[in-house]
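Hi P.,

Sorry for the delay on this. The queue was packed all week, but I finally got your sequence through. Input first:
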Amino acid sequence: MSFLDSVGGVGRVSATLLRHRLIAATAASAAAVIVAGCAFAATSSGTGKEKLVSEGNTKHTAPTASASPTPTPVGPLQLLSVSPVGGSHDANGGAPITLTFSSALSPGTPLPKLSPKIPGSWQVSGDTATFTPASGFLPNTAVTLRIPGGAAGMAGADASAGTLATGSTVKFKTGTYSVLRLQQILAQLGYLPLTWTASASSAATGGGSASIPADAPAAGSSASDSASASSASSDSASADSASAGSASAGAATTGLNQQVADAYQPPDGTFTFKSGYPTELTSQWTVGKDNMLNNGAIRAFQSVEGLTMDGVAGPDVWSHLLKAAAKHKVNPNGYTYALADQHTPESLTVWHNGKVIEHTLANTGIPGRNTQDGTFPVYLRYQENYMDGTNPDGSKYHDLVQWISYFNGGDAVHYFARYSYGSYQSLGCVEVPYAPAEKVWGYMTYGTLVTVIGPEA
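Then the structure:
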């Protein structure tokens, strides 16, 4: 029996029921009744009587606010790891030094100390403290990292972390610069007859740098290098070359410290020979190892930078080279290569930036004073000078010659007047007519490789 049938209809609801907060609502089609917190639906029948159907008897209560969770203590601050790892002997001297802790550090935490001191900056982020060098450590440097502990030690961000209980010392040694990276930079700056392009993955992570224009500026004309014909004169690096320029304004630069990091750990990439050079040159190239192309390129770079020319990549060379790479300071002279062929008729061919700029008849050494086969770098240059020595008959000579490029001891490419050219006639030098000698001298700057091939006299 429905609630309305039991009380005889809505019209007979007693006062007692009203005191129980009966609320009735009627309409032509529906009514809702809420009794003592219960909800009911009233439906209309065809006879006009309404029936209430319970929708449920769940009481509605106001939501109560939940209590905030109690923070979990993070525990005492602990040092978890250091990179580079203590005791390592081949650490990257340009890479960041990172310390990782068990919980977040306070922004004002005391910081570790490095010895030797180098320019750079510390940054605290979350549970790490990172030192980023400005220009890195030199190769084979013993580095000491002192991490403060105790009352004045490194501090956690959370009060429960406190300070690092005990300080510690981490020692490591940097490795050596890579011959491969030396080659990459020399190629990029135009001191080698190759290009080097960083791989997509290396470029994306900041390794390497933008490509250098394939054609470096040409060497200065010989006219600008001329000296008085009445006296012997040695040219200087600044006399036969323009000051080192930089790449186009649109070329990207790579920071000095990135260059240092790459010197320890070279990025991936590809070497490609520039077109036009002969196999007598390209066959001497070896990736990642010392070879004569390296030697000539280092000498050329030393000449441009005003360093002692010995073909060795020592500390001074690396210091200047990394700075030049960071600034994209390219070779102002371009790349020149000379090939003396002792097959009859003897000849001299000279390439500049991959193109043959001169091919001329030449003379090489007679028997007993033969011109040695091999590849050698130009190490001394004169526009004009006297050569002294002993003739095969024992007499002395004191001859004035022009446009001289010494490449192997006393052997040089130069002009010397002869009735003919193309055979064994000299005392070891490569003699060429005046006009070709003058022309190629302006291109055969310091470090230019000269290869001599063919049967020696």
